[in-house]
Amino acid sequence: MVNSRIIKQRESLPIFHFRQEIIDAIKNENLLVIIGETGSGKTTQIPQYILESFEDCRLIGVTQPRRIAAITVANRVSEEHGTRLGSEVGYCIRFDDCTSAKTRLKYMTDGVLLREATLDPKLEHYDVIIIDEAHERTLETDVLFGLLKETHRLRPELKILVMSATLNVEKFSDFFNECPIFSIPGRTYEVAINHHRDAKIISLKSTYVQRAVDTTLYIHTHEPPGDILVFLTGQNEIEKSCRDLDNQARELNYRRDVQYYDEVRNLIVFPIYASLETMEQKAIFEDPPEGTRKVVFATNIAQTSVTIPGIKYVIDSGYVKQKSYDPSTGMDALLVVPISQAAATQRAGRAGRTAPGKAFRLYSRESFEQLEVDTVPEIQRSSLLGTVLSLKKMGIRDILHFEFIDPPDPMLVKNALKQLFLLEAIDEQGMLTPLGDEMCIFPLNPFLSRVLIASARQFGCSREVSTIVAMLSVEEIFITPRDEERLFEADERRKVFYHSSGDYMTLLQVFEGYRDSGYDRDWCRDRYLNHRALSMAKNVRDQLRELMERHGVSIISCRQKDNQDGDHRKKRSKQTYYETKKYDFTKILEAFSTSYFIHLAKRHPHRSVFYHYASANIHTSEMIDSNSSLLALHISPLSALHPENKIVKVDSLDWVIYHSILYTSKALMKVVSKVKLEWIEEKLKLFKKLETVDLGVDDNKKDKQEKEVDDESVDSIGKESNYIDEEEM
Ligand code: CDP
Ligand code: MG
């Protein structure tokens, strides 16, 4: 049963007055753009209106850019609808399908719909597709736009709705054959904008966190009642700000310091970033107790996806954490970058939803004017590896001329094609190979799909590799505590799992320990392991194995027969650690090398830094001199191979492969393993071959010029030092 409070809430939303008009518009149009202010009720209400008034509608799919949004919205809507989550209303995100045969309304990530479209371009199961939060312009959303346009040609009766906050809507309509735009009239109030006086503030990244806390305290002590929303960039700085503000507020003498003492006598502080824990704190979305001011430190998630009621003051750091393509590695990195003017305007607007408000920008008006006008869509700043593979799988040969709403830089497309060639997913003419076709079975990064297939077909270790791949598909396994003493303890506990070949095997050992504990939560806690991540890894592993079985990818173990109970404990510099002898681990590393030779790095002859093979284009005999301007790669302190962990001697390391790079003050290689050059010599020839193939893109000459430009950007990346930690946005 739906209670009357929920019915009241639904009816109080701005969108409710336009219910019938919206239903009529959807009845009349098969392509429609709907815009409305954030919080007006698009995401939660429109799919329900369809559900309630189109009785013969079988399935409605609604995409969300964020996994967390898909889950929380589905939760909320199933509650409003009065059904259990997963029955009539459900969600589906990668590796977590919470739908059933009964499901008629399915919230999903744009990535999930994209995968479904790869398998069935007509999307036959659906009667309505809603691309929600279209203004976010994620990579997947942009590709979906192109595909849906084709789906519309094939199945004109499919209803396609694009929902967006009030940004750039003409563009969407123009793209979809100039379809009608339904605009939900919104009430917004005046927001007074205060810029910071310091003209240079936009370049002083280190100070914005402190400044944000100071400004919050200023508002709390000087401004009338009203809640405060602060835009920062990531989990770490959000948690730090919460602590700092709590501490400073505790020292206030309210009677003396707080101007509006009669109305605000207290402060309550919340973090919000893309994790279920922060989203599930109901109190964030409720009014604070009488006499209390609510402060929410948030990532970009609060800019347009999540609405926090009662906000009267917005503090804008001017920064966002954003996925950006790193030409030195061909991978994406999360970087903190200045926001666009459009984003700054959206952020300020969050203060004027229910009454006039104030926005405090922690940067000057001059800096504001220097910001980019619009946010660059993700497709123009990301690695397109997975996207290009999906498009190839769908039979789209000429990717450079695919109908994108904003086409990606041809350089990005070509780099993706090159990597796919190195992975042997496409041939010299750019045609999908049988291997490439098989790689599409798995909802994984193409590097990992390739490894998994090689482990089954060539190296006989797919049982172990499926576990390691699962471990690599979840969030960080090792917990790094903040206080020194526990940090030391965590470092010690972690050592037990280190394997002398490196981190792929270490991850396997962690998982096996977890399995042997009976998947025990306390076992994880005692070892500073992230239980949620490990239990997710178990789940992912099971799903991968199911897919392998279904598609005839055999599950074989490289466990050695004469070593059935060959677990050893070795003594090494007072550290007891556990190193399994059960497996022929070189097989596992060889399997990983089939993809990760692309991430091959060679150690400097006299130091413990490494250089990327492909960008350095070094040949085995050549020495790298210490003045090299190449990006110096360091081994992550969490790695088994880090010199201070004393598992291996640095000079025993010549060649390593790494999984990803994390930019802190240095470029850190994460998940590093020792490899032998003889395993990969053959593969390295592919790099040479790249220079002579056109991959179906017939402008090889131009390509070479671009390559030189690439190499220059390697230098600048190497010198840049203000990168950040990878974490959830
Ligand atoms: O999509 P749009 O931004 O237009 O609005 P919405 O996400 O449908 O949200 C409508 C209202 O429902 C907002 O006022 C939210 O505060 C509320 N809501 C909620 O209470 N809990 C959720 N999980 C989602 C939305
Ligand atoms: Mg929405």
Automatic annotation (TrEMBL):
Record Gene3D superfamilies: 1.20.120.1080, P-loop containing nucleotide triphosphate hydrolases
Biological process terms in GO annotation: spliceosomal complex disassembly
Catalysed reactions, semicolon-separated: ATP + H2O = ADP + phosphate + H(+)
Enzyme Commission number: 3.6.4.13
Keywords: ATP-binding, Helicase, Hydrolase, mRNA processing, Nucleotide-binding
Cited SMART domains: DEXDc, HA2, HELICc
Annotated Pfam families: DEAD, HA2_C, Helicase_C, WHD_HA2
Superkingdom field: Eukaryota
InterPro entries cross-referenced by the UniProt entry: DEAD/DEAH_box_helicase_dom (IPR011545), HA2_WH (IPR048333), Helicase-assoc_dom (IPR007502), Helicase_ATP-bd (IPR014001), Helicase_C-like (IPR001650), P-loop_NTPase (IPR027417)
Residue span, Helicase C-terminal domain: 213-395
UniProt key word Transferase: no
Name of this chain's protein: RNA helicase
